[in-house]
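Much of our argument rests on the idea that a fold can be written as discrete symbols. Part of our work consisted of pairing the sequence of a single chain with a tokenised description of its backbone. The amino acid sequence and the backbone structure tokens for this protein are reproduced below.
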Amino acid sequence: MSKPLRIAFMGTPEFAVPALKALIASKHKVVCVYSQPPRPKGRGHQVQESPVHEAAKAAGIEVRTPLNFKKDEDIAAFMALELDVAVVAAYGLILPRAILDAPAHGCLNIHASLLPRWRGAAPIQRAILEGDSETGITIMQMDVGLDTGPMFAKKSVAIRPSTTTPSLHDMLSAIGSSLIIEALETLSEKGSLISTPQPDTGSTYAKMLKKEEGRIDWTNSAPIIDRQIRALNPWPGTWCDLPDGKRLKILEAVIMPFAPEEKPGTVLDGDCVIACGGNTSIKLETVQPENKKAMKIDDAMRGGYIAAGQILS
């Protein structure tokens, strides 16, 4: 007969909230939630709690926000919870061995890729950027390596030509919340989980995104630029410079069948088809001129923000 597990949940962004809510709704006991400390955000730089922090507080669960686990008292407080297991989802802090080993069954991580592909900080965006045909969720045992521990469960999803980071984020978040509940049910009933070591071959590292990765290089082919736009919005966003030096953010675009001979970056016509590298082209659909709201490309051209014959850089 299965028994409820004592769980600590460790997560920070919106991606982790569905898993926390699923755990709260389950038979298991979430005794404590760990999240990164409140930080200034937005134009007003107001200090805000993380989405996980807010969700835990709304459910009446204690929230702890250590800067790290370098202090002995933070480690002792974690060990005093006498956990069966900790569930980690995009927490954002490196966990030392003392924390990893404290729960009876260690720490289970909800990772947003099909390990060993895309270990690291930005697996969702990197999968789209590199043109992967699929990705998914892996439930894994955490160890001192970076997403290198043994795997308990996987579920894959297709990455389609229209897939964006927000759509894939929400899909994987939902899958992760259901997959972790299944794993915990098995652990509760059988007292252990069957693991599979990660293979050494096929591993890739999803390095953290940098703001400069959002600048569009029109000498790249249209498929590469299309993936960049779908992967890097909303952050860091994708952009180019207009001839007057003002920035044009590009929010949505679609690959076109035209094979232009014009210089990459040239606005070919009144529909705002842009010449790209390799004799390919892409049509801008939604843009945001500097200091303006996002708008459809027809409105941007009528407003004189962009015009046929211009060369974007």
